[in-house]
Amino acid sequence: MSRSEEEDKPCRACSDFKTWANKQSKSTLAPPSKTNTPKDCPLDKEDLGKSTWGFLHSMAGYYPDKPTKSQAEDMSKFFQIFAQFYPCEPCALDFQEDIKKNPPKTKTQAELANWLCERHNTVNIKLGKPVFDCSKVNERWKEGWKDGSCD
Ligand SMILES: Cc1cc2nc3c(=O)[nH]c(=O)nc-3n(C[C@H](O)[C@H](O)[C@H](O)COP(=O)(O)OP(=O)(O)OC[C@H]3O[C@@H](n4cnc5c(N)ncnc54)[C@H](O)[C@@H]3O)c2cc1C
After folding, report:
1. Which of 106, 117, 115, 103 is closest to 65 using CA atoms?
2. Ligand 1 proximity of 82 Cβ (cutoff 6 Å)
C-alpha cells in the first residue's frame, strides 16, 4: 500500500464509532450500530480514550507517595513517550502541546493524580464534556466513593 493510500485509510482509533462506520460502509444500507458490533473489534476513539484514561488514572492512583528520584524521572519520561505514541494522532498532537505547557508533576502521588486530572479536564473542556472535580480523583480511581457505593 502506498503512503497516500495509507494516509487516506480511515483511522478507527482517531474516529468516533459513527464516523468510522459511515466511512467504512460501502452499501446504501444503514451502517452498523455500536450495539450490534462484536466486542472483539479494534477500539474506536471513545473506547480507546476511556480505557486509556482508566489505565493512566489508576497508574497515578498507585504511584508512590514518596517516589525515589529515579521513579519521579521515569514517570515523567513515561508521559513524554506516551504522548508520542498514543494511537489517535490528533489527540496525541494536542496532548503533546498540553504537556509542553504543563509538564508532568511527579514529586508525590497526590501531585501526579491532580496533574493528570487537570490534563483530562483540558480534553473534557475541548470536547464540551463536564469538568471533573479533581479533589475527588483518588475516590474515583483508588479508594472508591466515600458513600460506600463501590464497597
Ligand atoms: C491523552 C488523551 C487525549 C485525548 N484526546 C482526544 C481528542 O483530542 N479528541 C477526542 O475526541 N477524544 C480524545 N480523547 C478521548 C476522550 O478524552 C474520551 O476518552 C472519549 O471521548 C470517551 O469519553 P467518555 O465520556 O466515555 O469519558 P472519559 O473522558 O473517557 O472519562 C472516563 C471516566 O473518567 C472519569 N473522569 C472524567 N474526567 C476526569 C478527570 N478530569 N480526572 C479524572 N477522572 C475523570 C469519569 O468518571 C469518566 O466516566 C483523548 C483521550 C486521551 C487518553
Report:
1. 106
2. no
The CB of 86 under 6 Å from ligand 1? The reply is yes
Best substitution site from 84, 123, 145, 149 to test ligand 1's pocket, by max atoms within 8 Å of Cβ?
Answer: 123
pLDDT, tens digit (0-9, with 9 covering 90-100), for 45-66: 999 999 999 999 999 999 999 9
Report the distance separating Cα 65 and Cα 87, nearest Å: 30
Ligand 1 site, residue 83, Cβ cutoff 6 A: no
Share of residues in the chain with pLDDT > 90 (%): 74
C-alpha cell read off for 135: 479533589
Contact 103, 76 (CB under 8 A): yes
Domain boundaries, the chain: 3-33, 45-143
**Architecture of domain 45-143 in CATH?**
Up-down Bundle (1.20)
